[in-house]
Structures are given as C-alpha cells and as structure tokens.
Amino acid sequence: MSGQGPGRPEDSPGGDPGDDAGAPDDPGEHAASPEGGVYEWYTRGLELLRAGSAAAALQLLARAAEAEPESHSIREALGRAQFGARRFDAAAASFRRIVEEEPAEDYARFGLGLALSRLGDFAGAVEQLALAAAMRPDNRDYAKALRQARATLAARR
Fold first, then answer.
1. Closest by alpha carbon to 65, among 81, 48, 88?
2. 37, 44, 114, 136 - which has most CB atoms within 10 Å?
3. Residue 152's CB: how many other CB atoms inside 10 A?
4. What confidence category does residue 157 fall into, taking pLDDT thresholds of 50, 70 and 90?
5. What are phi and psi of 78, to 5 degrees?
6. Would you state the pLDDT for residue 13?
7. What is the pTM of this model?
8. Phi, psi at 45, each rounded to 5°
C-alpha cells in the first residue's frame, strides 16, 4: 500500500487480508510458548505480516501484547494482524485503545476507521478517517478510504 505512514509496511489494515480468514477464535490460547522474548515475538510477527500470514502473526503478536500491554507499536501490529485475519471487532478494539491513549496517532485512527467500515459503522469510520486525513493530508490512502466511507454512508441514507 503506497503512502503509508513512516515505516509502515505494505501489510497495513488497508491491504488485502489474503487467505487468513480461518484465524483461531482465541489467539491468546497457545499450544506452546514461542521461543524468544517479546522483541523476538514482535519482530517475527511483523515478518509474518509482511509475508501475508496475518493469522500466524496474530499468534505471536497476541503473546507480545499480553506481555507488554502498554506498547503502542505492539498494539498497532496486533491490530494490523487482527484486521488481516478478518477479526474486525478485535482490530477496532486494538486501534481504539491506541487512539484513546494517544489521540494524535493518525495511523491508529486510520486502522480504526477501516475496521469500523468493515463492521458496517460507516458514521464512526468517517469520523476516524476524517481525523486521520486531517492529520496527514498528504496521505492518499487516508483520503481514499475517507472518500469510500463517505460515499457508502451517503448511499445508505
């Protein structure tokens, strides 16, 4: 996805989630603890996201988020994995938590807006996407998502 925020790989919430729709119901339940520590889980999770394996990334990133619940970067990556695995409620909750703690976090607002649109809450999506687009007017992905959410909202009224 072009026009992402700094350091954002192409596997953002706006990307195609791929084949990972069969994600497990509870990513917090792990058959075996992954090797390494939180940093290794996080970096491996990002690698899996880049490779298009959102469901696999979800496993590691959920573990990392359990260990470091205050980390915005882990929470953001978890939200992206949840989105990619089509767990839109969970993705919205992850992005919402970041937005509540850091209102100026434009990418989290973008992720929240996309998740809300997938959940059918187009009014909420427009609100979040408009804020993200206002914070980063140069970001074409934000503007495109906002136009699409506004058009859908208008068509449904």
1. 81
2. 114
3. 15
4. confident
5. -60, -45
6. 60
7. 0.79
8. -60, -45
